[in-house]
Amino acid sequence: MDNQKGSLFPDEVILQILARLPVKSLFRFKSVCKSWYRLPSDKYFISLFNQVSVKEHLLVAEVSDSSSLICVDNLRGVSELSLDFVRDRVRIRVSCNGLLCCSSIPEKGVYYVCNPSTREFRKLPKSRERPVTRFYPDGEATLVGLACDLSRNKFNVVLAGYHRSFGQRPDGSFICLVFDSETNKWRKFVSVLEECSFTHMSKNQVVFVNGILHWLMSGLCYILALDVEHDVWRKISLPDEIRFGNGGNRVYLLESDGFLSVIQLSDGWMKIWKMSEYETETWSVVDSISLRCIKGLVPGIFPICQTGEYVFLATHKQVLVYQRRSKLWKEMFSVKGSSSLPLWFSAHAFRSTIGPCN
Q: What sign does the dihedral 205-187-162-190 (CA atoms) show?
């Protein structure tokens, strides 16, 4: 950026300020001058913007009586995002670093990866040539994952499920399809895994940390992890207190400032664990939060995303935020009127980034 004569601030200060704007505002200000016009495509500024934005988690949710997504920001409140630029009827399957992986409705094996902040999207090539009859992961895949590496400007989409002969139970062969944004192709590999089961929440709350995708088993036996670069599955242990069923068995897998984290809910407390040492699978408790203030909501409350400063949670019709420093609860959003699906059913962690779609 060329520093104009008489400018009040150095260029780097101006860049730091602009990097803290919402993407929508950044694109609006492109008309200010030529140097600002080039910013959304400048590699240095994109890196700076994403470094700042990944520290802030937002929550996005599909509301059944609205065509738009609601976006809840801890600082800026509630706004709307639209996926109309995709030009298809879609639903969100998973979110990662500002990108959303969506599937077409009705299911036809059609997937999109889009950035609702920049309104860019990419339609993925079909992952299969024929309708699924003998095995899935296509269609209603057991697992759907999205790994967005902002530092390398690439992403991977993962579909995984058990092979099964028509009308038969799965035979133990775990089929995994991985889309690579650099090659624009799917690759397939087969592993032998004992039968895994997942709840809707554990399928939705896939966490991308250390270049690895993580899903929580519904039986709380372990975390299933996939190294997307080397096509290797591994199992990661949960804290002993969770595995042995002490202190409540409602557990959710999230990310916390670049670390793997689990939130454990009981009737009266919400306990937050963080994996402080990834290689040795060392867990530590970083917070214990009383739920006395929201006691009536506890049975239907689900943590969606968090940072070191706050936790977003969704109920049937509300989005709540808990401020960890002040220890205050606040309602951020409430669905008006009737709603056919609980809000937590469609809520996802989100970040506003200038992410790579094409």
A: negative
Chain mean position to CA 108: 23
- For residues 208 and 216, what is the distance between their CA atoms, to the nearest angstrom? 12
Average pLDDT rounded to a whole number, residues 94-115: 90
Integer Cα distance of 255 and 165 in angstroms = 36
**CB-based contact 187:175 (threshold 8 Å):** no
**CA 25 – CA 33 distance, rounded (Å):** 14
Do strands 69-73 and 77-81 pair parallel, antiparallel, or not at all (unpaired)? antiparallel
- Cβ neighbors of 218 (< 8 A, separation 6 or more) are 197, 198, 199, 202
Maximum separation of any 2 CA atoms in the chain, in Å:
75
pLDDT above 80 for 233: yes
Burial (CB count <10 Å: 0-12, 13-18, 19+), residue 20: middle
Task: Give the pTM.
Answer: 0.86
Sign of torsion over alpha carbons 60, 94, 236, 210: negative
Query: 303 with 313: CB under 8 angstroms?
Result: yes
Counting Cβ atoms within 10 Å, is residue 28 exposed (0-12), middle (13-18) or buried (19+)? exposed
Q: How many CB atoms neighbour CB 53 within 10 A? A: 24
The first and second tokens of residue 194, run together, are 């004992």
The answer to whether 222 touches 235, Cβ cutoff 8 Å, is yes
DSSP letters along 266-323, please?
-SSEEEEEEEEETTTTEEEEEEEEE-GGGGGGGGG-EEEEE-SSEEEEE-SSEEEEEE
Give the Å distances, CA to CA, from 277 to 55, 56, 132, 187. 20, 22, 41, 31
| Distance separating alpha carbons of residues 281 and 330, to the nearest angstrom | 34
- Tokens linked to 232: 């290797």
Residue 4: exposure state from Cβ atoms within 10 A (0-12, 13-18, ≥19): exposed
pLDDT digits (tens, 9 = 90+) for 260-297: 999 999 888 999 999 999 999 999 999 999 999 998 88
Please name which of 38, 227, 42, 235 lies closest in space to residue 149, comparing C-alpha atoms. Answer: 227
